[in-house]
Every structure is written in C-alpha cells, then in structure tokens.
Amino acid sequence: MTSIKRVPLDRIRPAIDPRARRSEPFPVDVEDRGDEFHVSADLPGLRKQDLDISVRKNRVRITADYGDESESGTYRRRERASGEVSRVVRLPVWVDEKHADASYDQGVLRITLPKRERGIDIEVS
After folding, report:
1. Which chain regions cross the lipid bilayer (predicted)?
2. What is the pTM of this model?
3. What is the pLDDT of residues 96-115, one digit of tens each?
4. What are the residue ranges of helices labelled H in 1-125?
5. Alpha carbon of 66 to those of 41, 51, 56, 93, 108: distances in Å?
C-alpha cells in the first residue's frame, strides 16, 4: 500500500503560483519610456486619500493605509488585511520630482516620473 504524505498548502503554493513567492506587500511594474518612468501598482479597495507617494532622487515610496472599519466585534474568521503597507521602488536614475504626476483608478495607482536632465554645460574661458 502506498502512503501519501500530506503537505500544507502554504508550502506548495509558491511552486504553483508565482505571486506567492513575492515578499513585497503589493505588486509594482516600472516601465522605462525613454524620457520618463511609468510606475503602476495594484492597490485595490482604497480611496485616493488612503495613498501617500513621495519621490526623492531615484526612489519612490508608496504607502497605503488599509484602515480597519471595526476593531471591536466577535469574529469567527478574519482574513482581510488592515493597517499600513509601504514599498520603496528604486529607479536607475534620478527623476524630476517637481513634474511627477499620479492617478488612481479602479485599484491601480499610476505614477509618471520624468527623468532628470543629467550633466551641465561648462563654458571654457
């Protein structure tokens, strides 16, 4: 008779679902479009006021607050995440913070970050 060893689902899930391997709090895509970067983040179930974005040099910090509607109550099951999550995305070059733009629609945050001009012209005297 063959014996079957039971393996908890959380141990095999990374093998069948690539998203399970991710240790980041939410997925982010960074697209290089030549003169600017487009950053997209999946953040469903939030309002615009629940998001905070900061840009410094070549880093973008995205913070999302999944507030909890009710701290009190007797729960039989509680799986929905609550609290604050944050992620820093490092870009290969500095960006122009003053001309950055962001929008949030249907659970997707989109950030446009123009690349900063590099170098200066030096006049020879």
Report:
1. none
2. 0.72
3. 999 999 999 999 999 999 99
4. 9-16
5. 15, 9, 24, 31, 15
